[in-house]
Amino acid sequence: MALRLYRGDLLLIVALLVPLMVAAPRLGWPPGEAAALLGWVGRVSGIVGLAMLLVTAALSIRLPGFDRWFGGLDRLWQLHRLLGFSAFILIMLHVLALGLARVPAGLDVAVLTLFPPPSQLALWSGWLAWLAMVIFLAPTFRFFGRLDYQRWKGLHMLSAAALLLALGHALPLAGETWPWWLLGALGAGAMVWRKLLSPSLARHPYRVASVAPLARGVVEIALRPEARGLGYRPGQFVYFTPLDESLTAGRGEEHPYTIASAPHDPLLRIGIKDLGDASHALQTVSVGSRVMLEGPYGDFFAAHHPDRDALWLGGGIGITPFVSAARGMADVDEGRGVQLFYLANGPDRAYYLDELTRCAGENERFTVTTHFYRELGPLTESFLRHHCPDYADREIYLCGPPGMIGHLRDLLDAQGVPAARIHCEVFDFL
Amino acid sequence: MNKFAYSAFIAFLASIGTLVSVHALSSDDETDGASETRDITLDELAEHASAESCWKAIHGGVYDITDYVPDHPTEEEVILEWCGRESSEAWDNKSPGRPHSPGAERQLENYRIGDLVDDQGEPLSGDVEDTSADAERQDASPAASVSPAEDQRLHRAMLGQPMDGHYRGVFTDRGEIQVNITFDLRDGHLTDVNFRHLAYRGVDYLTLEEGDDLYPVMVQHRRITEWLEGEPLTTIFALYEPARVVDEVDGFSGATLRGAKVISAMRDGLNRGVYSWP
Q1: Where are the transmembrane segments (chain A) (predicted)?
Q2: Where in the sequence is the domain holding A158, given as residue range(s)?
């Protein structure tokens, strides 16, 4: 994750610090004596951990446009994951520190602090919240291996129980409750929106207008909006929920796909490669069937440095955001030069290449260079330099399979290209 | 991140497991230790009423907490007040109506030295205090002769432990706001005590000027606020006897505004809770 701060990050920092600031007069500075210090650490980690848990829940909201405050949905997701992880660690530190802080008073006191009589409901509510966290985080952090995506999603819903139990733990015990009501409401509100309201309120109905094969295992699906279409920018993606009854897999499941059409196109087009059960079934989706779209999300082509020339490196189905941008170029009189390297296995796998070449013919500031793995092996620095001598000074956009991204990052890094100039969107998790 | 989360999870389980198992393995010894107790009478208990040796009787047990007093989070003088006495009431009212935690209860057991008995050697429990012992103690206690305006125990019991912050309260009578007072609490001490409104029978005292008939009454109220500045909260009860606070009490006897109204307004503020945070 690039270290750049987005405006949403400042909001996050404020939300995370409010409970601590409110409690600060009561907590004071860390005391010097060991047991008192442990008690202080226990309280502070509890406060920050719970704040993180609630903010993590709030970050699950997934509102079109809101994600761009955080640099796109993929970065928002990374923040969600990082905060959830930190909350989990801090909450365990909280328990352990408060327990150990009582050891000087006797082991039995320490144990009783952690495991009080059942009548201390608030404390046990905290334990249950932790247990719920363990259950729904275990597959997330691969404690015991990986879980199928849909089942993982279902299990992740236990986070709602963890959130309520954690509030049931904190509200009776906290000195000041309003920050917890506030963050709790934000977190619960986000989950209610995401799981209960957004499926009916945030999804836009479309019909499949055509399914055009681009190569073996790759199709472009064109979608016509039933009502008003989504407004989007090149490089953004949508959650795609097919309702076609004849699908063998993935019916009613949402999956993210990058938009390949230009924003002015009356049809919304997405390129879909056969990578799993759901995308395999979509290769033969019925024309005329209904599809629900939610979005758009992402901020791939955010205006980082609009004055600087751009270098696009796309491969595989990762070519789609560049296709969208190239198709849209005719409308936007872009001042900057753009060079696209299409990294494909061979000419037969370079789908969209004809159209990209045509776009390049119409726009003198746009150049397309192909690089075929089967002929040349992995992309080398000399190839890049030969075709684009000033590549190191450009804003660089990467999209493609993980192996390609890793290779390109290493290559660019070795040439001293600053990481802040490399933009990459990975959504194998969304 | 995955590995770290897993390691932290296992480390957490291991630490808690160690804590619990060490406790389970060592708990046998503690029961032996706890059985070495003896009978202690109220007279013997009363001999240990100082910081040098502080015994307390709580629900029938006698505890020597001398070593623990410096570690207790509450102010020492509050703790020491109960030394040498039956202290179940204080134990059950850590803050009003709220007893000490089960953890504290276990901690207390470490200090048990005996059981409280009467002169005949019969067990005495704090819950069924017989009236004669109670009466005796009341007589013996120095607090028994103290005026309600000075009895700190009474004050603390009535006020609880209000949080630091800015408070506002009013006293109204016959549809008229007579006292509206604001004050801050810092570590249980009063600061910035001010009248926002002071009136009686339609006269706004705060607008009075020198020479007005009732002007001295207003001055006396000003004295009250000056006098309260920096004092512990419990001193507001001294206003039940305004002569302690203000020299010329004629204005008070003139049935215009009374110290009791100020107390009432301040306690109204405390009941409402913190108006704004410090």
Answers
A1: 38-61, 82-101, 121-143, 155-174
A2: 7-201
User: Cα distance from B98 to chain A (closest Cα, Å)?
Assistant: 13
A30 and A166: one domain?
yes
Query: Which ranges constitute the DSSP H helices of A102-245?
Result: 107-114, 121-137, 149-156, 158-173, 178-192, 198-201
Work out whether the CA dihedral A322, A325, A330, A332 comes out positive or negative: negative
Interface test with B, best of A123, A141, A173 (most B CBs within 10 A): A141
Give the closest-approach CA distance of A280 to chain B in angstroms: 30
Name residues 97-116 of chain B within 8 A of A (Cβ).
101-104, 106-107, 110
Last residue of some domain: A160, A175, A201? Answer: A201
B130-148 residue pLDDT tens:
444 444 444 444 444 566 6
Distance from CA of B20 to the nearest CA of A (A): 6
Q: What is the CATH number of the domain that holds A280?
A: 2.40.30.10
Residue A323 sits in a domain whose CATH number is 3.40.50.80
Instruction: Residue window 139-178, chain B: list those with CB within 8 Å of chain A.
Output: 163-164
Same domain for A168 and A96?
A: yes
- For residue B277, list chain A residues with Cβ-Cβ distance below 8 A: 22, 25
Max Cα-Cα span within chain B: 82
CATH of the domain at A147: 1.20.120
Q: Using a CB cutoff of 8 Å and minimum separation of 24, what contacts does B20-28 make? A: B20/A111, B20/A115, B22/A107, B23/A107, B23/A108, B23/A110, B23/A111, B26/A107, B27/A107, B27/A108
Total of domains in chain A: 3
> Which ipTM was obtained for this model?
0.77
Q: Looking at the structure, tell me whether residues A328 and A189 fall in a common domain.
A: no
Which chain B residues are Cβ-neighbours of A88 within 8 angstroms? 5, 8-9
Q: Of the candidates A22, A113, A141, which has its C-beta nearest B5's C-beta?
A: A141
Query: How many other C-beta atoms can be found within 10 angstroms of the C-beta atom of residue B184?
Result: 18
Residue that finishes a domain, picked among A236, A265, A297? A297
Q: Say if residue A67 is in the same domain as residue A122.
A: yes
Q: Give residue-wise pLDDT tens across range A31-69.
A: 888 888 999 999 999 999 999 999 999 999 888 888 888
